[in-house]
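User: Here's a chain of 305 residues. Predict its fold as tokens.
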Amino acid sequence: MKCFSHIRREEPMMIYGAIEAGGTKFVCAVGTEELTILERVSFPTTTPVETMKQVIDFFKPFKEQLAGIGVGCFGPIDIQCKSTSFGHITSTPKLAWQNFNFVGTLKQYFNIPIEWTTDVNAACYGEYVAGSGKGLAGVAYFTVGTGIGGGALFNGTFVEGFSHPEMGHMLIKRHPKDNFSGNCPFHQDCLEGMAAGPAIEKRLGVKGQNLLADDSFWQIEAFYLAQCAYNTTLMFSSDRIIFGGGVMKQEHMKKKVQDKFVELINGYVEIPPIDSYIITPELGDNAGIIGGLALARKAVRNKQP
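Assistant: Prediction complete.
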């Protein structure tokens, strides 16, 4: 979002900052105009006081060269510039972070452009500018891990309206062999409630990473993620759908989701070749941080005369 006006001093070497604020851990980094990461650090997400002190302490040594910061944050968050709570984390289940003024806290220490979006939007943007979405007009990105989040952009602009999308909570059909009631406190059997990491563990009593590749459950998981891709295809006609996150580190999952998606779409619309249409992130775990750096760069460029 473009909500601040700043006068930036010219420096011998301009660098950018990125914050990937996850519900489990924070990752902070600084990088160059070419999006090369110069230094990075990660630490657990605890309380705002403890965690934000570590964020500030990381960036302080770079303050003279730091031109802008891109933040991708767990949500829900307020992205509306005219809102009195812009830059806040809002109704998160992480109670200590509810209604926390994230951007305002950063602004107390760094009077520079700050780009503010969701963590999955930042990862989507990273893949768009430097990964598997490079050169494409429309990219959708889903992270499948502790939760499920989704973001989409077209021609460099995020799909959003009164707020950011919550595509991880789309409703899906239940697999005929799955009697799990769901793990989402709001909707039970939405996508996140049925297919995120905690839903897998609650259903089976074991973490997904400990399941064998030929376990029959993975066909159920693929059925849910293929529905996600199906809905995304018919709503957005994105050029590429990217699935990241811990669950998708199971290498066999991509093919299972592709196969089930082809079955579900049943030739209704013509899609790009499936092997290049539903994929995993080229940037891997760096997608969010690269996206944050790119968003910071974008914010600075937009402020230049």
